Amino acid sequence: MTLSRFALALVLVVVVVVYFVAAPGTWLGGVCGQHGLASIACFADQRDALSGWVGQHFLTAALIYFGAYVAATAVSIPGAAVLTLVGGALFGLVPGVVLVSFASAIGASLAFLSARFILRDWVKARFSRRLATLDRGIARDGAFYLFALRLVPVFPFFVINLAMGLTAMRLAVFYVVSQLGMLAGTVVYVNAGTQLGQIDSMGGIVSPGLIASFVLLGLFPLAARYGVALARRRRARAGYTRPKHFDRNLIVIGAGSAGLVAALIAATVKARVTLVEKNTMGGDCLNTGCVPSKALLRTARAAHDMRRADRFGLTPVEPRFDFRDVMTRVKDIIATIAPHDSVERYQSLGVDVRTDSARLVDPWTVELGDGTRLSARAIVLATGAVPVVPDIEGLAEADPLTSDSLWSLEAVPQRLAVVGAGAIGCEMAQAFARLGATVTLIERGAHILPVEDADIADRLAAVLADEGVTIKTDTTLAAVRVRDDGQALVLDGAEPVVVDRILVAVGRAPRTQGLGLEELGILRDGRIAVDAQLATAVPTVYACGDAIGGYQLTHAASHEAWHAAVNALFGSFKRFAVGYDHLPWSTYTEPNVAHVGHNEASASAAGIDYEITTYELAEHDRALAESATAGVVKILTVPGKGTILGASIVGENAGDWIAEIVLAMKHGIGLNKILSTVHSYPTLAEANKFAASNWKKAHAPDWVFAWLARFHAWRR
After folding, report:
1. Which residue among 38, 117, 366, 636 is least crowded, i.e. fewest CB within 10 A of its CB?
2. Is residue 357 scored above 70 in pLDDT?
């Protein structure tokens, strides 16, 4: 921070501190000393004197009031609402509105400039990527959203001033939009102030004028919210003609996990719904994701158990297999499950299924690939995502595998590089290592499984390393050179690696091409932007699942689909915000890594205090019997209480038994209740109870036990 910025920041801090320390209300004494200068009680106490002086020196009083309002607003001193009421009481409706309107806008602009001058460069240097995204959004819609915030004051007045100063919004836009957006509220508050100034007795409190003013104050936010929503709808529909009648209630685009759930919900509540899918029913989860990967992992586990059978007192044997048979099994499992997601099944449930491409032509109309146009009151986008293949020199020429294309393999690569050590990368690295490949796992972050705490990720890393996987963290793939002896990976931070195939698992990008979303203004930085109710910028269009980014988990997609479908069908009456506080996710390696709620990293980032309780599976009877002791239960709780903030579990089938923790968090059940729940013996799920027991022991009242020892000694 430069000297000038530091000096300005210091001046502002000093002014605010002096205001509160000096407590200017004490200068007047009496009620003002008790309640503060910026209070209705103080004004009422000084009203007669102030009104008389204003009457004699109107212009001077107006200038002093104007300057005080600007100064208080500029340094973000609380009391703007009281000052506004006082302006109405002292100067009347019209002069009060003029004074407050300009003073509040000028003061807000000064606060805006102060925040920009002091903090913008610092924020930009540390959060440049996020700030750039925010700035692009501000450039497109900033004026509208600022107007909405001013019209419906969801956040405090001064917070908006300071926050907008950190964006790239132009000062002129901020000033004009602020003044216009605050005008209606100013009129209401100033009018209320004119009535407050007339209170001489208890009877004055129930005067018609005052009652009307407070009715306006109560109704204004509701009316403004409705007005903003109406303006947003009209803005989104500008240039389009709403059909007089609709062919159906809902159109769902995409028949993956999210789309299938959304369509099923609509059909269940007897809505007329059309489901459009241009590829295979079931989406990525059935065809290239969850189902085939778990089938492959099970085969790999069988091979691993054969190779390390001595763990169970058996003679180890090297597994012999034809990889084509392995892939045939995977495809057979897909084929067995496919009828659950088939066109025939969903048609039998009342869903109109269309196998075709789809494109939105307006907020209510979808055009199919054959030219057919369908209209609906609402549309749900559930188009899924596609694997990201980064633009790295030579990578395209190497014909990299992705989570979509690896199922075409007919043989296990002798040498395989997996780029990206998230859930998919770790699962496939372990699977192919167990099937005989020499695997190198490359991760640019500090540890594998970046969403997990380092100590949790390190437990899996140790297992993978023991199974022969070479792990390179803090390493970036810089280039690929296709050579006669293989594909040479040029790495930043490590020696080059030569492999036969490369599997890219660095993430998935929403599938948005060819849907007409750009024309409707639905896309934001390549993804479908949604609000808390999963509505897009076009209020009739909702989105869910991998298409909106976020968690990109099958169960998350189903969770979102319920909210999208219900809000799309019944949003005129009631809308539900989607929540993720109790959403679990699992990595299905062996051992599983499962997580729900906060871990240490997320709790620290959110400024949440926590304490940690752990239980090692190396102490657990069933884990010992299964030779599966490389695990831990790690629970975060509110300090001194059994309230669960989050949990991470490393262990065999942890994705199954973390459900108990999810249930407890969802319904406010703490560790005491888990401890008192009877668990079958011996099961791995008992580990949750033993973790709760460790927490209880750490919080045992030692003084009670001391007295109990004396009691029992006395009884003897």
Report:
1. 117
2. yes
How far is 168 from 141, CA to CA, in rounded Å? 12
Instruction: List Cβ<8 Å contacts ≥24 apart for 51-60.
Output: 51/89, 51/90, 51/197, 54/90, 54/91, 58/91
Cα–Cα distance between 365 and 238 in angstroms, integer? 15
Sign of the four-CA dihedral 463, 466, 470, 475: positive
Give buried/exposed letters for 417-449 (b at 16+ CB in 10 A, else e): bbbbbbbbbbbbbbbbbbbbbbbbbbbbbebbb
pLDDT of amino acid 392: 96
State residue 336 phi and psi, 5-degree precision: -70, -40
Residue 407 scores a pLDDT above 90: yes
pLDDT of residue 702: 79
**Which residues on adjacent β-strands are paired with residue 472?**
442
Angle of CA points 408, 411, 415, to nearest 5°: 110
The whole-angstrom separation of Cα 387 and Cα 288 is 11
User: Which has the closest alpha carbon to 598: 581, 620, 586, 573?
Assistant: 581
Residue 90: which H helix or E strand, with range? helix 80-91
- Render pLDDT for 159-201 as a digit per residue (tens, 0 to 9): 788 888 888 788 988 899 888 888 877 887 788 777 765 544 3
Alpha-carbon span 558 to 581, nearest angstrom: 15
Alpha-carbon torsion angle 114, 120, 121, 123, nearest 10: 140
Render pLDDT for 283-326 as a digit per residue (tens, 0 to 9).
Answer: 999 999 999 999 999 999 999 999 999 999 999 999 999 999 99
**CA-based nearest residue to 106, from 84, 73, 142, 78:** 73
The string of pLDDT tens digits covering residues 445-460 is: 999 999 999 999 999 9
CA atoms within 13 A on the CB side of 161: 25
Please give the C-alpha separations between residue 220 and each of 84, 187, 198, 213, in angstroms, as whole numbers. Answer: 16, 11, 22, 10
CA distance linking residue 334 with residue 283, whole number of Å: 11
Query: Within the chain, what is the greatest distance between any pair of CA atoms?
Result: 106
d(CA 486, CA 620): 46
Are the CB atoms for 514 and 430 separated by under 8 Å? no
State the distance between the two ends of the chain, measured CA to CA, in whole angstroms: 73
Neighbouring C-beta atoms of residue 102, cutoff 10 Å: 15
Cα 372 from Cα 241, distance rounded (Å): 18
* Interior angle at CA 137, CA 135 and CA 143, nearest 5: 95
pLDDT band at 206 (very low <50, low <70, confident <90, very high): very low
In whole angstroms, what separates CA 558 from the centre of its chain?
Answer: 16
Tokens encoding 117: 């001058």
Q: Work out the mean pLDDT of the chain and round it to a whole number.
A: 87
Q: Label residue 335 exposed, middle or buried (CB < 10 Å: 0-12, 13-18, 19+).
A: exposed
**Which of the pair, 152 or 386, is modelled with greater confidence?**
386
**DSSP output for 297-316:** HHHHHHHHHHHTGGGGTS--
Pairing of strands 592-597, 585-587: antiparallel
Name the nearest CA neighbour of 197 among 97, 50, 30, 25: 50
Residues 677-695 have a mean pLDDT of 96
Q: Residue 262 and residue 106: Cα distance in Å, rounded?
A: 49
- DSSP conformation letters of 183-216: HHHHHHHHHHHHHHTT--SHHHHT-HHHHHHHHH
Domains in the chain (CATH in brackets) are: 3-234 (no CATH), 248-281+342-387+510-570 (3.50.50.60), 396-507 (3.50.50.60), 585-702 (3.30.390.30)
* C-alpha to C-alpha distance for 174 and 114, rounded to whole angstroms: 14
- Please give the average per-residue pLDDT across 584-612, as a whole number: 94
- SS3 at position 20: helix
